[in-house]
Amino acid sequence: MTDDAEAAFSAVADELRVRILRELWDADDPLSFSELRECVDVQDSGRFNYHLGELRGLFVEQTEDGYDLRFAGRKLVGSLHSGVYTETGGMVGPQSVDGTCVLCGSDLEAVYEDQVGKVDCTDCEVTIIQTGVPPAFVDGREDDLAAAIDGYVRTTSRSLLDGFCPTCSGPTAGHLAENDYGPQAVVNCERCGISFSGLAAWVAVDHPAVLSFYDDHDRSVRDTALWHLDWLADAEWVDGAAGDRATVEVRLDDERLRVTVTDDLAVTAVDRAQTD
Ligand SMILES: [Zn+2]
Ligand SMILES: [Zn+2]
User: Fold this and answer.
1) In angstroms, what is the span from residue 182 Cα to ligand 1's centroid?
2) Given this model, what pLDDT does residue 2 score?
3) Measuring CA to CA, which residue among 266, 186, 199 is closest to residue 231?
4) What is the rounded CA–CA span in Å between residue 7 and residue 13?
């Protein structure tokens, strides 16, 4: 972070300025100087003008129609609404989850605790899914945490695989790697440096060939929770040894679909056949 970051944070380190930003967020249209001052409810015009001036440029713009939030201002107020800077603690669950542990077969449970969402085994140490989430994540989703965690992880991983870092929006690049669980998909952000890794077969979850395979068998891969996609853990290296291609087989009824994931995490060589 640079001096620019310090200047930006100090520009909003004031309760009155945050109120100005929130009022502009709540307004349907740009506000004139006097309308905005009335909303914020500050009598002293000079003081108000000073604080508004500190926000102009990066967070607030003045157009012919009045004052409005710039992109940075909307991002800032949006992150205040997410609760990520203002709400610590908090817990929802644990709730029982439809599904069983891939390792020991015991029941699963979902829990939200202090900006972390998790689907865990109730018996062994396996964590099926763990993800950082803002407090707003549980808003209205308290009754089905498991579905919320499933949806959130799919959304962020889709963004990563499509080339957009969910943390900073910078470009991402992926490759295959080996670990104890077999082939892994590793995605790095080229801007902020954050790194994510998951099972290689994950890359195929949203692939059109997989979607239509499920569809042809009257099922929906999108409506199937990740912990019910048992093939996610089954990817193997092509030719057995760790290399630049991994393959996984999806089986439904009397048919199988084999997809191959290349080193840059593209899905190629889709092969579909009847099983015996
Ligand atoms: Zn277990
Ligand atoms: Zn990033």
Assistant:
1) 19
2) 56
3) 199
4) 10
Q: What is the pLDDT of residue 174?
A: 95
Quick check: helix, strand or coil at residue 190? coil
For the stretch 108-147, pLDDT in tens is 999 999 999 999 999 998 888 999 999 999 999 999 999 9
For residue 100, the ligand closest to its alpha carbon is 1
**Total structural domains within the chain:** 3
Does 36 share its domain with 139?
no
Ligand showing the shortest atom-to-Cα distance for residue 166 = 2
Domain end, chosen from 60, 82, 104, is at 82
Quote the domain boundaries for residue 202: 165-276
Cα 95 to Cα 118, 137, 139: the distances in Å are: 11, 16, 16
pLDDT of residue 268: 86
Q: Look up residue 244 and give its DSSP letter.
A: S
Question: Maximum Cα–Cα distance for the chain, whole Å?
Answer: 82
> Which of 229, 223, 227 has its CA nearest to residue 259?
229
Kindly give the distance from the C-alpha atom of residue 103 to the centroid of ligand 1, in angstroms, as a whole number.
Answer: 5
Cα separation, 53 vs 70, in Å, equals 14
